[in-house]
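TL;DR need structure tokens for one chain.
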Amino acid sequence: MQNNQRHFVIAGVLVVISTFLVYWLLDTVLKMPVQASMQAFAIDRLFDYHIWLIAFLFSLVVVFMLYALVVFRHRAGEDEDKEGEYFHGNVRLEIAWTLLPLIFVVFFAFESTRVLINITREDPDEYVVIVTGQQFAWSFEYPDTGLKTGELVLPVDQPIRLEMTSADVLHNFWVPEFRVKQDLLPGFEPRILRFTPVEEGEYQVRCAELCGLNHSGMRAPVRVVPQDEFAAWINQQVASK
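>> reply
TL;DR here they are.
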């Protein structure tokens, strides 16, 4: 029994080490785009929790498997007919592999719900833009000015409310740097997407739902600019109409 505990301790330490190494590898390889919206930070934290869990579960399976293959392998001179020790059931292990998944599921359900509520909360100061998706282009309307354009320009640090519809088939609005996505459903009420851009720069909205032959080309430029530059752009566009 003491020998078995020693094996569990050694394998357990190796699992911990492997978890940190696998997490570091995944975090290095799977680099996320820049966090360009306030909502991106909470969403990335959820991704981070998932990567830790993936690293742990991978290590738990692979380390114990490799440890058993190496430590308990057949060695030269051993009786080839010798059988391993049999035991029937292990209550502590069965409780552990029942409770741990339950704890993980409850934690992720709670945390995901909390994040979803926070990132979809209405803001009284939000700026409304009407978005229309159609094969294979995007159009953006600023209802307070009547301006309609093929480029989405947004003021930095301003809560945004996108009211989105589809003119034909199912589309999906996605700017990876904002981390938020939303389906556009033809024939339904406008879908609402809320976010607050916090990083000035040029991005790209793309359709993330297969919508036809030129689906991959359904893109549009997105610019996040300072408040005064946004106001000047609006005035310039309205004056040139």
